[in-house]
Amino acid sequence: MLPPLREVVARHGIAARKRLGQNFLFDLNLTRRIARSGGLLAGGTTIEIGPGPGGLTRALLAEGAGRVVAIERDPRCLAPLAELAAHYPARLEIIEGDALRLDPAALTDSPRRIVANLPYNIATALLLKWLDRIGDYESLTLMFQREVAERLVAAPRSAAYGRLSVLVQWLCETSILFDIPPRAFTPPPKVTSSVVRLVPRAMPLAAADKARLERVTAAAFGQRRKMLRSSLKPLGLPVEILLAAAGVAGTARAEELSVAEFCALARATEKSAPTGDIAVR
Description:
This protein is an alpha/beta fold. It has two domains: about 5-200, Vaccinia Virus protein VP39 (Rossmann fold); about 210-270, rRNA adenine dimethylase, C-terminal domain (Helicase, Ruva Protein, domain 3), CATH 1.10.8. The protein is about 35% helix and about 15% strand. The protein has twelve helices and nine strands. The longest helix is centred in the C-terminal third of the chain and has 14 residues, at about 260-270.
């Protein structure tokens, strides 16, 4: 039988480090609820990012995950994770490394899913990186700050709707499953957390080149209070022609456009720009 996680953490002298975005979750009821939210875990590979001392890892294995690949950059946490791997022979693989520099899809077999309590300080950067190969995953069940979670699911004309909303919803079906209060963590963060489930779409919501969509949304939301005929000028294209080609009013503001309309703008840049002019920068 495994010893309580608090006991393991104390024995190894592991204190959560703010610079690593660490907040440990010891409540087994909560970690098992997160694990169950990941769907059927027995087949394929379950990828966990930033397992720390292994709270969610324990839950994933207890809920029947056939193979878990845990990516952890904090060397202090490798020993308790190794103890967990010994308790579940051949079911847990530990990779020491920075998740921002690694490609989980390249390190694992399909079908694969990610289930993780992401470090707050790199959560959005990780998600944007995974979008490049989102079709390699059957699902992502991730914990974010509530504010970020709301941006992921936000609808047009809402305060939370922005560039992240467009890019994620273009490629995924998104939903907030449940919240976790600050008091559940050690140390408690200053914000509420939310568990979000993302399921990649079989096809993007509308046709668009990702690099062009990124540039269009960056320009539009970079000056979100301005009308599009002004906010899109940094693209260096004839804005009125661009808007007309996309069927979008120049008096509209970024928060008013649907994901499909942003995709139409991205497609219109292909016709309005010289070859290579909209390269990612």
